[in-house]
Amino acid sequence: MKKRDELMTVPEILDELGGISERTFYRWREIGKFPTGIRLPNGKIRVYRSEFEAWLESLREVA
Predict the structure, then answer these.
(1) Where are the domains of the chain?
(2) Are the beta carbons of 20 and 29 closer than 8 angstroms?
(3) Cα(61)–Cα(9) distance, integer angstroms
(4) Residue 55 CA neighbour count, 13 Å, CB half
(5) Does pTM surpass 0.70?
(6) Known SUPFAM superfamilies for this protein (predicted)?
């Protein structure tokens, strides 16, 4: 059985990114620098953990 991909909340994402501001998060989304997410019927945003981790990996610099 395949494990379901976790949906991350905005506070979880901010925490994983070391405390960037919520405004920065939404600005990155507006300009396309962050993976698209899912807007729930209550207006909250969720992002799949796999997409978040792939995005983080894409930022890795070649040393």
Answers:
(1) 7-58
(2) no
(3) 26
(4) 17
(5) yes
(6) Putative DNA-binding domain
